[in-house]
Design a protein that fits this description.
The complex is a heterodimer of chains A (about 260) and B (about 375). Chain A is flat and about 55 Å long. Chain A is an all-alpha fold. Chain A folds into 2 domains: about 120 residues, Four Helix Bundle (Hemerythrin (Met), subunit A) (Up-down Bundle), CATH 1.20.120; about 130 residues, no CATH class. Chain A contains 10 helices and no strands. The longest helix of chain A is centred in the middle third of the chain and has 36 residues. In chain B, the strands form 2 sheets. Chain B has a 6-stranded parallel sheet. In chain B, strands 2-3-1-4 form a 4-stranded antiparallel sheet. Chain B folds into 2 domains: about 180 residues, Beta Polymerase, domain 2 (2-Layer Sandwich), CATH 3.30.460.30; about 140 residues, Rossmann fold (3-Layer(aba) Sandwich), CATH 3.40.50. The two termini of chain B are about 25 Å apart. Chain B is elongated, with a radius of gyration of 25 Å. Chain B is an alpha/beta fold and about 375 residues long. Chain B is built from 12 helices and 10 strands. The chains are: A mainly alpha (about 260), B alpha/beta (about 375). At the A-B interface, helix 5, helix 7 and helix 9 of A face helix 7 and helix 12 of B.
Chain lengths: ~260, ~375
């Protein structure tokens, strides 16, 4: 099976997972289920196959063009969701993650269809710092993406609590305190990973700061500021949640500029 | 043949139910005694505060029923009082149908409550240990557990909370998660606030602080709930440290204003505040709910959520019964006993069928649920 077909199947899995969860939520019968998790796992495995194929083509971590970056970011999101979603008692995070991954991969598919196959881009000589920078930075963006999704969940739950007319989603969404904790932890994890990404970028560029590294530093500073603001209890959890959603535009902008 | 003989909250007042309640410690012996009765082969006794039901596999239904009644009269020393007890009976598929409804919470006082499922499980385990069950009741109860789970997972029968106290607890849990770290303050020591406070404590709230115009009453309630009392002049200051405030004072006007809560919130360093206002007239100005990180619910908002949940559960009954019926059909429950009649379905359940042989149609909880 060729790579775009695998990617399309993976994208459909995430659409399926999202649709399944939405239907379950609308009927008020959403519970963490093996069926839903199974669809997400299938999508993830297909992502792995896509990235393996691209990795073999380039002989390096497959983040050489826009579709690859988008798929790698989607893969990071799902990987972190699998690792952290249950640990943070946020099984519903998958419902919010699936449409984002679907969107990222749909854009990747459209670009692939419009542009045609991208040429292989081998690194000669192989630069470990370059690969480490790209992979770790994208993983950190995955953590920031998940934090944004948790922030979105917070805003939805807060609105339901304030409205006095909670809908079906109210009973499935986690408590807002757990969501605040999850955002904090995810931003912390993202910040640590991004620190690694910036250090490796600095080393890959022979210890010089390029505009690209500068932009990463701006993102790092923005998230560090957000966490500090939260730890100093300067803002309400709602503003913290809202800021985590808005802040995710920064990593997305950097990806768009690549 | 399967047989069910019992009373419940719909057919018997508490004065009757308490006379027939089996003590846990006597239950194994009672089961062994019942098994030895003429016509009886297997027995499970479900004895809760809302029902006493005896499920049996029998070889001679009429004889078993008679000996069971005699046994109950003797065991509980009922004498002539026994004649005034309206037992309901179900046999064959009717008994299975009834047990499945019970295990699914459809026959409970609070529709859809889940505690009964555990009670049925416990009753079965006790009977099993006492040697009261064999092939037929083992199969019946295993099916009942399957159906109970299926009904709960495929319908919204357990959805929401149906009382003001439990709605308040649900909301608190949606804000704070586990309540083990939560401090509760009661302002105005009324009965409703006492009950709501107890609900929160029963779900793990850390401690209770009580404030009342009459400090003696505050001390009394605080002692009852294992908390502490604060002077009425100090409750505003205390609000900085608590997570949940229940107000029910008799004040003729509101005593909590947005400006006051805003000042409190600044000192709380980002911690959420849940205010439950069950006073009429209200103690808290509605505009307080507009403040960030403050969640205010008054008595109407809580009652509306409870009432919506009750209505939703009522709407789910037909769906739950369809799940039970389809389970009966798919699993050939009729194979449990040679019953000549078809199981109660749809309209048939609204009239007494051959498998519901209650003393009167009114006594049959199936036909009148």
């Amino acid at each position: 099976m060729n790579t775009p077909v695998l990617l399309a199947l993976s994208t459909l899995c995430f659409l399926g997972g999202f649709s399944y969860a939405v239907v379950a939520l609308r009927t008020g019968l959403h519970r963490p289920s093996w069926a839903n998790l199974g669809i997400m796992i299938a999508g993830f495995l297909l992502q792995c196959l896509v990235l393996r194929d691209w990795g073999a083509l380039h002989g390096r971590c497959p983040i050489t063009n826009a579709p690859e970056v988008l798929v790698f970011l989607g893969w990071s999101l799902v990987l972190l969701y699998f690792i952290l979603g249950r640990a943070f008692r946020l099984s519903l995070l998958g419902v919010f993650t699936a449409p984002l991954v679907f969107l990222l991969q749909t854009v990747a598919l459209v670009l692939l269809l419009a542009h045609g196959p991208y040429p292989p881009e081998k690194l000669v000589p192989t630069d470990i710092w370059h690969e480490l920078h790209a992979a770790v930075s994208l993983l950190s963006f995955g953590a920031f993406g998940l934090a944004a999704m948790a922030g979105l969940m917070y805003l939805v739950q807060d609105r339901q609590l304030k409205s006095h007319h909670p809908g079906q989603l109210f009973y499935s969404l986690p408590p807002i305190r757990y969501l605040t904790d999850a955002i904090t932890r995810l931003l912390g994890i993202g910040l640590i990973l991004l620190s690694g990404g910036i250090v490796s970028a600095y080393l890959m560029n022979a210890r010089t700061f390029t505009p690209h590294v500068g932009l990463s530093a701006v993102i790092w500073a923005a998230y560090a500021g957000l966490l500090t603001w939260h730890f100093l209890r300067r803002g309400s959890p709602k503003r913290f949640a809202g800021a985590s959603v808005v802040a995710f535009l920064l990593p997305l902008m950097q990806l768009a500029l690549l | 043949m399967l047989l069910c003989l019992g009373i419940n909250h719909k057919t018997a007042p508490v004065e009757v139910r308490e006379k027939l309640a089996f003590a846990d410690s006597h239950l194994p012996e009672a089961i062994r005694e019942m098994r030895r009765l003429e016509g009886m082969e297997e027995t499970v006794v479900l004895s809760t505060c809302n029902r006493v039901e005896i499920y049996s596999a029998v070889n001679d239904p009429e004889r078993a029923m008679e000996s069971l009644r005699e046994y109950l009269t003797r065991h509980f020393d009922l004498g002539d009082f026994a004649q005034h007890i309206d037992f309901y009976h179900h046999s064959g598929v009717g008994a299975a149908w009834h047990l499945f409804r019970v295990a699914s919470g459809l026959d409970s006082m609070v529709l859809g409550e889940t505690e009964i499922f555990g009670q049925v499980k416990k009753a079965y385990a006790t009977a099993q240990e006492a040697g009261g069950t064999a092939r037929r009741l083992n199969k019946l109860f295993q099916q009942a557990f399957q159906v109970g789970k299926l009904v709960r997972s495929s319908t919204r029968i357990t959805h929401g909370s149906t009382s003001i106290g439990s709605v308040a607890v649900d909301l608190a849990e949606k804000i704070f998660g586990e309540l083990s770290g939560c401090q509760v303050m009661i302002v105005g020591a009324g009965e409703m606030s006492r009950r709501t406070g107890k609900s929160l404590l029963s779900r793990g709230a850390k401690s209770i602080i009580v404030s009342n115009r009459s400090h003696d009453r505050a001390v009394e309630l605080a002692e009852e709930m294992g908390g502490k009392a604060v002077r009425f002049d100090d409750w505003e200051e205390t609000m900085i440290h608590v997570d949940i405030v229940i107000t029910s004072t008799a004040a003729p006007h509101s005593i909590i204003h947005p400006a006051m809560v805003e000042t409190v919130m600044k000192k709380r360093r980002g911690r959420s505040l849940f205010i439950i206002d069950i006073a009429v007239p209200r103690d808290v100005e509605p505009a307080v709910n507009e403040l960030e990180n403050v969640y205010l619910y008054d008595i109407d908002a809580l009652e509306m959520m409870a009432s919506e949940a009750r209505e939703e559960r009522e709407r789910q009954i037909a769906l739950c019964e369809a799940v039970i019926q389809s389970h009966l059909d798919e699993n050939g429950i009729t194979a449990l006993a040679p019953i000549p009649d078809r199981p109660p379905t749809g309209k048939d359940r609204s009239r007494p069928g051959n498998d519901c042989v209650g003393e009167s149609p009114e006594a049959d909880p199936i036909t009148h649920s």
